[in-house]
Write a structure and sequence with these properties.
single chain; about 20% strand
Length: about 250
């Protein structure tokens, strides 16, 4: 499963930092997994990197993947977690304003948006203006998730009025609707096209109409495994992990 990370060096140095970790109240929590709340658009690449981290440090990683707004709500309502990786600064800000961050967020990756259509583009979608066609079934991520807000910003820049057939709870849900033939098109992250492979086709959005999606990451103030959380975030910003992110269609700071 590991792509291009078998030769990771330096992770062995993290093993010591991840062993014998005390929780916020001093209790030993070495038998608990590292809990990472992360945006759904990171599903594939973060799963891969979590496997490598666990293999090299012995620390199991439990990923909670969903729309960033759902994750932020869960955290504010008291869900236990060690690390939060959001798909925008807005939802990270929600968690920060609640006083739940141990330190300032760090941007781990960025991406842009693209149109996604069925494999081979059978409906001949050429650009954003086509998404207003009445003969197309277009779905969008709900405006409550970062991808939905980004998509609406892109459409506004292009002065295109889209009437979506449905609003999906996450960008991956919108992507799945197109990949399964239940919709003709959507607007998703460029990295989603890489993850979907040949099940869909991506139609680039011009730079002047596009936006940059930012992924901030932070350790939670009440992290059950604070040392392991710090080691995991250091790993994600390492050049080896950043190379995997780039291979997966993300841009890196």
């Amino acid at each position: 499963m590991v792509r291009g990370v078998a030769g990771l060096i330096g992770l062995g140095l993290l093993v010591t930092a991840c062993s014998g970790v005390d929780g916020p109240t001093g209790e030993q929590v070495t038998d608990r997994p590292l809990i990472v709340f992360a945006a759904a658009s990171l599903t594939d690449v973060l799963g891969e990197l979590a496997d490598v981290f666990e293999e090299r440090t012995g620390v199991p990683v439990l990923l909670n993947l969903a729309g960033s707004q759902t994750l932020a709500t869960q955290l504010v309502e008291g869900a236990p977690a060690d690390v939060f990786v959001a798909a925008d600064r807005v939802q990270m800000g929600v968690v920060a304003e609640a006083g739940l961050l141990a330190d300032a967020p760090v941007v781990v990756a960025t991406t842009t948006l693209t149109i996604v259509v069925e494999a081979g583009n059978p409906r001949d979608v050429a650009g954003l203006t086509d998404l207003a066609r009445r003969d197309l079934v277009v779905v969008l991520p709900t405006a409550q998730v970062p991808a939905g807000r980004y998509a609406r910003e892109v459409l506004a820049r292009a002065a295109v009025d889209v009437r979506p057939a449905s609003l999906e709870r996450s960008v991956r849900a919108a992507l799945a609707r197109v990949a399964q033939g239940e919709a003709d098109a959507s607007v998703v992250y460029a990295s989603d096209i890489v993850a979907a492979g040949d099940t869909v086709t991506g139609i680039p959005i011009p730079v002047e109409q596009n936006v940059v999606a930012t992924y901030p990451m932070a350790v939670l103030a009440d992290a059950p495994r604070p040392d392991a959380a710090a080691a995991f975030t250091a790993f994600l910003t390492s050049e080896a992990a950043q190379a995997v992110l780039r291979t997966s269609g993300f841009r890196t700071p």
